[in-house]
Structure formats: C-alpha cells, structure tokens
Amino acid sequence: MNANRIINMVIRMVMNRLIRSGVNAGIDKMSKRGKKPADGQNAPDPQQKQQTAQTQKRMRQSMRVARKIGKF
C-alpha cells in the first residue's frame, strides 16, 4: 500500500464522520419545532411531538441505509 492510498483512506474516514455528524445535527435542529412558541402561537400538542419524534427516527434510519448503500 502506498502513501497516497493510506492518505485517501484516512481522509474518507474523517469526512464520513464529519458528514454523518453534520447530518445528525441538522436533523436534530429541524426536529426541534415549537420549543418556545412565539406570541399568538399555541404550544405543540403531544401528538405533534410524537409525530416529530417518529419523523426524526425515520430520517435517521434512511440516512443509515443511505450510508450503507454508499459503501458498496
């Protein structure tokens, strides 16, 4: 194995981790709806919170599958 292949492998590993953490942070940020309702807005009901949690779970699962497919 030459140095170029080793460097490429390390860069790919680091970039995959950074992208994964960035995607997860974006999902977390987008899923925090209604933390503090503005004036004139109602607080989210429990059903909406549950739907948000389910959506977040589905997005994480789909990203996990996409990463596995990308490795092939």
Notes on the structure:
- Helix 1 (3-31) packs antiparallel against helix 2 (46-71).
- The two termini are 21 Å apart.
- This protein has 2 helices and no strands.
- Helices cover 76% and strands 0% of the residues.
- With 72 residues, the protein is mostly helical.
- The protein has one domain (3-35, 46-70).
- Residues 57-72 have a biased composition (Basic residues).
- Residues 47-56 have a biased composition (Low complexity).
- Residues 26-72 are annotated as: Disordered.
Number of strands: 0
Average pLDDT figure: 78
Number of domains: 1
Distance between the termini: 21 Å
Largest sheet: none
In terms of DSSP E residues, the strand content is under 5%
- Estimated structural class: mainly alpha
In short:
With 72 residues, this protein is an all-alpha fold. It has helices spanning 3-31, 46-71.
